[in-house]
Amino acid sequence: MIKLHVFHTGSVIVDRGIPYKDKNPLAPLGVFRGKDKKVELPVSVYLIEHPNGNILIDTGWSSRYAAERPHRFFGLLGDISTPVVKPGDAVDEKLAALGLRDADIGCIVFSHMDFDHTSGLEHLRRAKRVMASEEEYADSGKYFFRYVKSSWDFMPIETFSFAETGIGPVGKSFDLFGDGSVVLVNTPGHTHGLVTTLVTGADGHYAAIAGDTFYTQENLKQHIIPGFTVNRALAEKSLDYMLTLAADPNCTALLASHDPERKEQIITL
Predict the structure, then answer these.
(1) The domain that contains 122 carries what CATH number?
(2) Total domains present in the chain
(3) Distance of alpha carbon 77 from alpha carbon 237, whole angstroms
(4) What's the gap between Cα 122 and its chain centre?
(5) What pLDDT, in 10s, does the model give residues 221-253?
(6) What residues make up the domain containing 189?
(7) What is the pTM of this model?
(8) Chain-centre distance of CA 17, in angstroms?
(9) Averaged pLDDT, groups of 10, the chain, 269 residues long
C-alpha cells in the first residue's frame, strides 16, 4: 500500500498572468497592473509513503518567509511571488505532525526548481537524496534570473536522465524504483525539465502530481497554459496530456501544486 499526503506549505500571491497566459508579456511580473489582478494560491508539497522509503515531491516555502520577504533582485522577486506562510505551514512542521523528521526522507524529487518549490529544503538537510532532472538542472543555470540557487546549493543535487519510454507528452520518463510504482514523466513547457510524478498502486490506479504543468482547474477547463513558459508549444502539449490523465478512469487524483480547489488530504493507492 502507498499513502500520498497532500500538504499546503502556505500560499503565494501572484499576478493572474502567472497561472494563466496573458496577451501582455509583462503580466506575470505584475507591471502596471492593479491588486484586482492578484490571486492567492496554495503551495503544495507531497509526501509519498512507499514500501521503498519516504519520498517528498518538492519542499514548498521555507518557514523564514513567515517573517521576511525574498530579497533577490532588490526585493522584486518578493513582489512577483509573495509568500504567505504561517506557523505550522513549513514542510518540516507538516512532517513532524506525522512523527517524521528530515532524516526519515529517503528521497526528495523537485518537480522543478522555482524557489516556491525548493526553499523549504533548508529544513530537510538530513534527507538521503535530492533529485532533479538533467534538463531542469541545466535550466537553473541558463535562466539564472528565474532561479534562487541559494535555496539548494548547500546540498548535492543528483540529476537523472529521462529515458525514451513513450510515456507522457514528449515520450520521456524515469522510473524511480524500476517497478512502475513511481514514474517521473517529463511534462515540459513551464520549464524544460518539469516532472509529473505518477504514483501507482497494486491495482493499477494512480495519482498524478503535476507540479506547475497546470495551476488550477481553470487551466484545464479553459485550456489555458501557464504564463511563465520556456516553450509555449510544449506547454500546450503537456496541458493536453493533463487532460488525457483527467479523463482516465484509473487516475484517482490529478494534483497541481497551486490548485485552490485541492484540499490537504491523504490518498491511499
Answers:
(1) 3.60.15.10
(2) 1
(3) 29
(4) 17
(5) 999 999 989 999 999 999 999 999 999 999 999
(6) 3-268
(7) 0.95
(8) 18
(9) 97 92 78 84 98 97 82 56 92 96 98 95 97 96 84 96 98 98 98 98 97 97 94 98 98 97 97
